[in-house]
Amino acid sequence: MIRSRHLSSSIKNKSQTVDGQQLLSIRWRELFFGSLNRRIFSATVLIGALTLGVKLVSMLKEMFVAAWFGTGDALDAFVIAFMVPSYIINVVAGSFNAALIPVHVDVRENQGVPAAQRLFSGTVALSLAILLTVTLCLGLLGPVILPFLCSGFGPEKMMLTERLFYLLLPAIVISGLLTNWESVLNAGERFGIAALAPVILPVTTVAVLSLLGARCGIEALAIGTVAGLLLQLLVLGWVLTKRGIKLLPRWHGFDVPMKRVVRQYLPLVGAAALMCSNLLVDQAMATMLAPGSVAALNYGNKLVALVLTVGTMALGTAVLPYFSKMVAATNWSGLKYTLITYTRLLLLVTVSATCLGLWLSKPLVSLLFQRGNFTAGDAQLVSSIQSMYMLQVPFYTLGILFVRMISSLEINHVLLWNTIIGFTANVVLDYVLMHVMGVAGIALSTSLVYAATCTFLGTVLYRKLRRIELETSSCG
User: Fold this and answer.
1) Count of domains observed in the chain
2) How far apart are CA 217 and CA 156, in angstroms?
């Protein structure tokens, strides 16, 4: 009788365990495979959490670098030396992401996996050829470009900048391949590893700086940056290979999908070139101000960039594949509903975050950076810059949502006009405001530009969706 009770109790406990596991499985499927908006939200939370972790590690790296170099000439030289490679990475490689994913999703959904692999191999070949050509040209033109960017630097500082520039050039090709490989993972809604892999970069950088910093100085920071990117590339390559994706570039010619990618890529390159030129203009103008202004401008954007990267990278990465699916399925009502839902949510979150950031600006800068060679005066200057940068958060975040929907609709020429407006406004506002407010005026200019361009994109997108809605109803 006792054994019978024990057996009955055991069966009941097992049944409850199975039921609990089934319930957990159901909840998991509802969360990640439920309605489209829920899946977007889940993907955004996943990417955001992983990106936050990566950026916190990156912030620890920045604190380490700040304590080591302060806002001195060495870090000024590094920032300017990495500015041109970063520009090329964002323009040439970053544009492939937004151009490839909508077409890749459409080809995979309507033509199958082999056709999607064919498209991916072709885009890798094309992007690699472009990246190698651009890197070679930059290597040859470095002595011409750098004096223009370093107009306020002395001879010794100029020579240091040139050495760092050539050490950092390989980062262009490595980062370009990274962006391309991340694109295919995100297009397949495999967001986790692509979001987590960048943690390799700050960890490697700190390790190399600890080992070589005393001997090589700021050059150890450049070596660590390239080594970290290379390790990240190897990890992503291993993941893609395990998923059966062929990494070797193979050119299949300009077939219809490749022509679609290139047609969307060209205006994105133009838009990215002008958008990234804003940073070049900002930092070039900062070299005309007091020594250390370039480094102070760079530090003032660190925390804001962290907030924006965690939020907008997560949202932008998550929504593009789903937007592309809705466009491929001509689900216009779902597209409009998703846009309205996330616009409201983003405004609520980002306005609150901006107010909190403005209130805590000075304590945060002091907590993060004020140690070693980073003085209280540096903290005061960086805090004022950071407050001006904080004002861009709502406009930048909402703008990313608009940009991703525009890319999914394959009307990227709109982005080119948007950046023409933004670039022109940035040059004028930089020049005026830096004479009124110093280096903080450059940061305020950036926020005002994002406010203007966000308004422009929202207006264009509203009109486009309204036109599609009218055409659909008239056809019905």
Assistant:
1) 1
2) 15
